Amino acid sequence: MIVKKLLHTRMRVNDIERTVKFYEQALGLTVSRRHTSPRGAQLVFLATPNSEEEIEICQLPNSPSVQVQSDLMHLAFEVDDLMAFAAQLEQKGFKLSDGPTKSGSGSVIAFIDAPEGYEVELIQKVK
Question: How far is residue 22's CA from residue 96's CA, in Å, rounded to a whole number?
Fold first, then answer.
């Protein structure tokens, strides 16, 4: 037997509203649903364009502060034109934290930091 498909990836945060606002404003993701878990965690699921998988943002009450280590994990999103996307990010008040850099495959990559220090990779694939 094998798994059927990836449903979502969960990331715990300190400030759920700040994080949701970042993903909505910087990347254009949309909230698909919100609820409180039986353990009291605030959960927000974000829909990603052209994908069935979601990102689950979680804020646990009375838990230690989230401190993301560098290079612990990241999310990667494809964009059509990385330079144009970066320009739009800057107009919205967001800046790239690294790149753009041409990869060995010829793709161009860059990173932007989400709240809590999670990295978001932006990839313009070779056409």
Answer: 13
